Amino acid sequence: MQKGSIRVHTENIFPIIKKFLYSEHDIFIRELVSNAVDATQKLKTLSSIGELKGELGELRIDLKIDAKKKTLTISDMGIGMTGAEVDKYLNQVAFSSAEEFLEKYKGQNEANIIGHFGLGFYSSFMVSDKVEVITRSYKEDAVPVKWECDGSPEFTLADTKKKKRGTDIVLYLNDESSEFLEPQRIKAVLERFCRFLPVPIFFEDKQVNNPTPAWTRKPSELTDEDYRNFYKELYPYSEPPLFWIHLNVDYPFNLTGILYFPKIKQSYEIQKDKIQLYSNQVFVTDEVKDIVPEFLMLLHGVIDSPDIPLNVSRSYLQGDPNVRKINAHITKKVADKLEDIFNNDRKAIEEKWESLGLFVKYGMMTDDKFLEKANRFLVMETTAGKYQTLEEYKLETETLQKNKDGKQVILYTTDPVQQDAFIQQALVKGFVVIKMGTIIDNGFINQMEMKWENIVFTRVDSDIVDNLIDKQESGESVLSKEDAEKLKELFGMKIPELNITVEIKGLSTDAPPVIATRPEFMRRMKDMATMQGGMGAFYANMPDEVNLTVNGNHPVYRSILATIEKEKQEKWAHNLADLALLSQGLLKGTSLTNFINRSVELMN
Asked: Could you tell me the pTM of the whole model?
């Protein structure tokens, strides 16, 4: 029997490894199972180049719990180790056998070897009072050995009995880790970290993984149904995806994966962190913000790359040129896919725009390279239900919707129902109004005014229809100057939290008697403030600016001005103003109650 001390390459960091190597203790299962996968893949490599005598046999990994002995055993039928190899790889912390194997067999399927750090095995001591390693090498006449350590630098290594090739790691779990004697706990960890590892994994006599997930196969081998079934495997309770992109790159970096565009019915249903990152089919994290562009964090799916640098616990990304290259590649692939669908099946884009629009607009706001391509396939829905690209909209509205500064005016509505009266007046003029009512449209409008040349957005209710494109001089009013002043005085009411300005204009007799509008700039600031908080509170707390445009040509004013009672004139004027404010959603609380009571009184 050999006795000795584990040789640490720098100083005695064993207690640190034991307690603080990983932030989540359940990671030890991933590390040990990954090591077992490595051992199996090494054996396959040796077999493929003729260095293995005999049959491969069944290659699988088994996990078993013994509640009485308080042990968890992880077994593989892989390459195994000799006594010398155990001494070399287990007794010298941070010496990676996988790294050495890769160097020796360079070019021989090295992408399938997961480990690069040599510390994963020691995660077992975070949960164990004692660890045993019983192993037999694939080499002929190899003598099985047993290595044993209680978590101190002291170990024992001795010959033992083991009939089959491979390695058994037996963990004697400590009291604080008794949760790992519960089958459901083990299942949950395997489901999270090991569900797509490339070697069959069995627990309680059932296979718990899919060794050949869709992203590891060639796109030519997969049907649409295969892609949908894999999505269902990833997200069992989600609706089928809109479509998907299969990533398969081997130069200048290795990257595979499938990204899905999910259905998003309502803006508030947006959820990030649905993309899973794998390294050679080992789950790493679902926090992929450095790899995937921010606007594509709304996508679902899987990315797998052995070229993404990770820290010792494979839990965090580190800065690296490859990460930036992968980020740019994914952006390009998504843009190319959307443009291809638009060019070949535009109707499919239009039908799915309720969900797709969020991705596209978000990307155009945050990524200029994506913006350049997206300008060609962005579509905007009009109130008539027609979808137009920016160029198509500009072409249709070039004559009527260019202002004096030569800028194209895009008229939009954020609420077609509430703003219907304004929309109808715009349509009568021949204007085209688009819908902009999602959670990101306010920011999108502001960004595009800066990024698109000679474009300005104007909400359809931000001014009277005559002023939406250019400010017009007041039309002739049938009212005398004296009556106009009297009318302006009647509408000079005070309403809490509103700054009201009144102007008398001679509009068409078909136009409403009073039109309430909110200046575009101030309304945008208020809308943004309600979402942003912080500095936005400055605008959020400011009173709403409201313009009341009184149509002096409306016949109702002849009746009002003919009424002798000043009090009744004021009530009629107040009611007309309240109706206009109601159309803007600005009549609330006591003001709304007063309007209702006043209306009943006037009817009597």
From this structure: 0.76
